[in-house]
Design goal:
The protein is α/β, with parallel strands linked by helices. Helix content is about 30%, strand content about 20%. About 45% of the residues are buried.
């Protein structure tokens, strides 16, 4: 089969959906790989590296789309890229379907076979293909570094001849993949770390990394797939009181709480921020899906009464060379399930739960139950 890789044009995005290693893998499996020139520039992958791995470089993205049986993307296509897609073509990437349902309908109208890898079932078998985990892990790491860079004091304890400098206090809200990596990174940097989450498994995970658990865990807090269910009004009030009190003594706060298909829960309010120390820094990793912090703005830094609120967009792209390598491997592992071709065309085994769970559109119809009707 012919596998196509485009340069990402949606800002801010420096990642690419293939690497020289995955190109070699595709070639060894008998596939041809077409890469748009410059696709790897943001990830520090030269065109020559793709060519040395066996890819064919093309100047025109339209030529890549016209020839490819499978098109690999990091982010969902722009309007001009949608125009290049053709009937029967496989599109694989992070397509953000819950926030872009009209584009899901457009895939069906064009006859595209679209796979949204964010929908991958969270099973042991799927771990090697789990794009959310690989990218969130890097986002949590980078979030702590950026928050610490904005914090104008030192982070670890320092014992000097002039006296001892106490370590910074870091509070991580949400202990999923990003949150756990944020905890681990802050601990490595010498901070005193606390964290909160409402899932039953969270306390043990937080404490296993050497952080202190703050908050409470309501009954039946986790839903299928390991995500937290929305809290009741009473639970929200109780959690808010605990968070507000704890925030008063914190230097750096990183929020990571998100629920697929819904706006991010608002956890830190303006009133809570008003009670924090001047010089404190908050970073909202969920800013692009609604935000955990009141007043955070995508792509902006906001100052409120001496407190800095960071709203960085697309954190994994800020470590694009690493993020691309992991993402490309995720895609290569997934394509091993679908990149098969027989006399009648591409074989798509909808009995496979991983294929069925990610398949959005096929044969001109929306086939994923979450997006029908």
């Amino acid at each position: 089969m012919k596998i196509g890789v485009l340069k990402e044009r949606r800002e801010p995005e420096d990642r690419v959906a293939a690497s020289p290693d995955t190109v070699k893998r595709y070639r060894a499996e008998g596939h041809e790989v077409l890469v748009e020139r410059g696709a790897g520039t943001g990830s520090m992958i030269a065109d020559e590296a793709f060519e040395a791995a066996g890819a064919t470089l093309l100047e025109d993205p339209g030529a890549v789309c016209a020839a490819a049986d499978i098109l690999l993307k990091v982010q969902r296509p722009l309007e001009e890229e949608m125009a290049m897609l053709r009937r029967g073509q496989l599109l694989v990437g992070m397509l953000d379907p819950y926030m872009n349902r009209e584009q899901v309908a457009a895939y069906a109208e064009k006859g595209v076979v679209a796979f949204a890898l964010e929908l991958l079932p969270r099973t042991t078998r799927a771990q090697a293909m789990d794009v959310l985990s690989s990218q969130a892990n890097l986002a949590g790491y980078r979030a702590v570094l950026e928050a610490m860079a904005a914090y104008r004091r030192v982070v670890p304890m320092m014992m000097t001849a002039a006296g001892t400098v106490t370590p910074a206090k870091v509070f991580v809200i949400g202990a999923g993949v990003a949150g756990l990596q944020a905890i681990a990174t802050a601990r490595r940097m010498g901070a005193v770390v606390t964290a909160t989450d409402v899932r039953p498994a969270a306390r043990q995970e937080i404490e296993s990394l050497g952080a202190k658990f703050v908050g409470f865990i309501p009954e039946d807090a986790a839903t299928e797939g390991g995500y937290a269910r929305p809290l009741t009004a009473e639970e929200q009030e109780k959690q808010a009181a605990i968070v507000a009190e704890h925030l008063r003594g914190q230097d750096i706060v990183v929020t990571t709480a998100q629920i697929p298909g819904r706006p991010a829960p608002r956890i830190v309010t303006a009133a809570m921020i008003a009670g924090m120390k001047p010089g404190s820094v908050l970073l909202d990793l969920a800013v692009e899906s609604g935000g955990n912090i009141e007043g955070s703005r995508p792509g902006e830094t906001v100052e409120e009464n001496g407190v800095t609120i960071l709203g960085p967009r697309n954190m994994p792209s800020r470590v694009a060379p690493t993020a691309s390598l992991l993402y490309a491997r995720n895609l290569a592992n997934f394509l091993a399930l679908v990149a098969q071709k027989d006399a009648e065309g591409v074989t798509i085994d909808t009995e496979d739960e991983l294929i069925r769970g990610t398949l959005l559109t096929r044969d001109g119809e929306i086939v994923h139950a979450n997006f029908q009707g």
